[in-house]
Amino acid sequence: MTGERDELQRRLCERESHDMKTIKQHAVNVTLDPDSAHPYLILSADGKEVKLGDKRQNVPDTLKRFNQTISVLGKEGFSSGKFYYEVQVKGKTKWDIGVAKESINRKGEITLGPKYGYWAVWLRNSTYAALASPSVLLSLKGKPQRVGVFVDYDAGLVSFYDADCWHHIYSFTHVFFTEKIYPYFSPCLNDGGRNSAPLIISPVYICPIK
User: Which three-class secondary structure string do you get for the chain?
Assistant: First the structure.
């Protein structure tokens, strides 16, 4: 199995563009923040996976915690520079992935969009959209199994990629960040069991730049 995985990574590496290799040099170690997680969300012990549970967890309702929207933030925030991470979305019919500013409202129903401090894309059944103003329907070449998120804080750029075939999904540009931003995730409702797979923050395989 290890040999097959290495061979797959070698073939993917050959297909990877120079730009993507450069972006991946900014890979960061993202973990989920349990203090922000909606009470029904279950996080893995290593903070790399999140899924919706069947019952409310016994957690305090602090200002940091989402109390109605099925969401969670990354533990570490960023206020400068560039960073990149990948999220496995395999087996899911619905998800939200992006970044959010620190001062977002985490209580009650939440609207995703730059106006509200979120820069995100989502999947709803077979429909992908960038949650801009207004939302932009996305026509993708395939169904991503892993989504890469790249942020250049100082340049005001948030870009999304299909991390397996290196296709660009969407970019928010000319963003004027004024505060710390955090990775944002929502595994969404379970959709009668069809969407019960977790979101998984994946290791980033970095190919050598030639």
Answer: CHHHHHHHHHHHHHHCCHHHHHHHCCECCCCECCCCCCCCEEECCCCCEEEECCCCCCCCCCCCCCCCCCCEEECCCECCCEEEEEEECCCCCEEEEEEEECCCCCCCCCCCCHHHCEEEEEEECCEEEECCCCCEEECCCCCCCEEEEEEECCCCEEEEEECCCCEEEEEECCCCCCCCEEEEEECCCCHHHCCCCCEEEECCCCCCCC
Q: How far apart are CA 52 and CA 48, in angstroms?
A: 14
- pTM score of the predicted model: 0.90
Whether 50 contacts 42, CB under 8 Å: yes
Please count the CA atoms within 13 angstroms of the CA of 183 that sit on its side-chain side.
27
Select from 208, 200, 198, 210 the least CA-distant residue to 24: 208
Q: What's the full length of the chain, in residues?
A: 210
pLDDT of 141-199, one tens digit each? 889 999 999 999 999 999 999 998 888 999 999 999 999 999 999 999 999 999 999 99
Tokens 């790399």 correspond to 48
At residue 14, φ and ψ (nearest 5 deg) are -65, -30
Give first-to-last CA distance, the chain, whole Å: 27
